[in-house]
Specification:
The complex is a heterodimer of chains A (about 80) and B (about 240). Chain A has about 80 residues and is an all-alpha fold. Helices cover about 65% and strands about 0% of the residues of chain A. Chain B is an all-alpha fold and about 240 residues long. Classes of the chains: A mainly alpha (about 80), B mainly alpha (about 240).
């Protein structure tokens, strides 16, 4: 089976999540704080693993986001599965 | 052709089109990102261009079918309209069955039958809309992706419009207006929910997931009923 390697980009993830938060109408200040917290926690979790799949990464990000905002976690989870 | 039968067929055609999920889904994603990158009014303005683009695509397809039917088939003395009705009824019944089995992909979400590559490209386009022409093109493109489902319905609608205009020329624009209005209504309804009722993409998607089975049953049933209606009133009637 063909596998496609990808590199985890913390900045891009933070940028994406902040955009999603803005679209959901979450106040910018609050979103900045909890997005940073969620991404930091995600980095901490994935740094313990040698190899990680994209699905695993998305699942961890969702778990962390759910602690702060359920809508943002849900939109992040389904963003490629809407149509 | 009785105008009441034409109206009945048109209502079923409208029902089938109203339960198609691709255009409202693309619109919800497009509006979600448009409202993040622009002011509320600019997002509303862009969404109008999306709706106009979609309506233009519907009109173009209807005009193309009208032109093809009127100039290549209906004028031909060898052409048998009953055969065309049989073919359309068969295709509609098959599409109805297809809806029950394959319209939605397996899983909890609302992933549709279109290829993942196509879905990814249209979602990427929906995320990166910058101006009104982008929104217009996205509206046009969204209409093309479901062409397999809308084409037989549009053929039926055009045949009804041509048929009803024989009785009274005024019926054709009225039927066309009714069809166009109700075709863009689902997209318009998503726009109103997101703009006026302040619902976000999460709310819209949760409701789409919740009513997924309902949409599937209504869509499949509309196609099969439309096929049965055509057989009863246009072939045997």
């Amino acid at each position: 089976m063909k596998t496609k390697k990808f590199e985890f980009d913390k900045e891009a993830l933070v940028k994406d999540l902040k955009l999603e938060a803005k679209a959901l109408g979450i106040p910018v200040g609050a979103a900045d704080v909890f997005v940073e917290k969620a991404v930091t926690a995600t980095c901490k979790k994935i740094s313990q693993k040698k190899i990680i799949t994209k699905n695993d990464l998305e699942r961890i990000v969702c778990q962390e986001l759910k602690k702060y905002n359920a809508d943002l976690a849900y939109v992040y989870q389904i963003r490629d599965k809407i149509i | 052709m009785s105008v009441l039968t034409s109206l009945g067929i048109l209502i079923l055609a409208v029902f089938a089109c109203a339960f198609l999920q691709l255009v409202p889904g693309v619109f919800a994603v497009f509006y979600h990102y448009a409202s993040a990158k622009n002011s509320r009014d600019k997002a509303l303005n862009l969404s109008s261009f999306f709706v106009i683009g979609n309506a233009v695509m519907t009109t173009l397809l209807l005009a193309l079918i009208y032109f093809s039917l009127y100039h290549f088939l209906l004028d031909n003395p060898m052409f048998d309209i009953t055969m065309l009705y049989w073919a359309i009824a068969g295709i509609l019944a098959l599409l109805g069955l297809f809806v029950f089995c394959f319209y939605y992909r397996r899983g909890k979400g609302t992933e549709l039958f279109i290829s993942r590559k196509a879905a990814k490209s249209i979602l990427l386009k929906a995320r990166t809309v910058r101006n009104s022409s982008d929104a217009f093109v996205l509206g046009l493109a969204a209409g093309i992706f479901e062409i397999i489902f809308v084409l037989p319905i549009y053929i039926v609608v055009v045949l009804e419009i041509i048929g009803s205009s024989v009785d009274n020329l005024l019926y054709a624009p009225i039927l066309l207006f009714i069809f166009m209005f109700f075709t863009i209504l689902p997209t318009f309804s998503v726009r109103e929910q997101m703009y006026r009722r302040q619902k976000n993409l999460a709310d819209i998607e949760r409701s789409r997931v919740k009513y997924k089975m309902f949409y599937r049953i209504m869509l499949g049933t509309s196609y099969i009923l439309l096929a049965a209606f055509i057989v009863s009133f246009r072939i045997l009637g």
